[in-house]
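dude i think i finally got it to work??
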Amino acid sequence: MKSLLTPIYLVFCLVSLLLLSSCENAPASVKVSDLQMETVNGVQIAQIDGKSFTGVAKSYFKDGKVSSEQEYQEGRKNGAYTLFHSNGKPSTKGSNIDGKEEGLYEEFYQSGQRKYEYHYSKGVKVGTWNSWYENGQQWTERQWKNGALDGKVNVWDETGVLRKEYWYKAGNLLKKELNLPE
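look at this
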């Protein structure tokens, strides 16, 4: 029994030390109003006491609920961010790398229903962008390439009837078809 407890005790001690050391390196959480912004070579850098900030900056509604959260790394917006409706549900979610939009970007109605879904690569619009009416019916679908509309754009009405179609190449409108009610 004694020989079994010694390895378990050692594992427990090692795990405890790892957890404690990770807490020391955990990013700080501060109020957005505590950050000082400085422009360095055209880039906004968030600082506290003259040092580049790493951690999460939050802002709050008057009732104390969180209105926004943004991750920073070495003073730059780097990581996930979320904006919230006053009811506590997310209004916007996205992420930044070196201050530029990257990956999936979403917006939501106060009900929680998704409103927009976009994609970015190094701050440039790419891929399929979708939007929805609050009833959940798709509103638009757009294709982006290198920051310009490129491909077909569809626009539906709230009942799901395709009403408009546009075709783009490198941001230039090539053709449009309308199917409007009479």
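The first helix runs from residue 2 to 24.
im so relieved honestly
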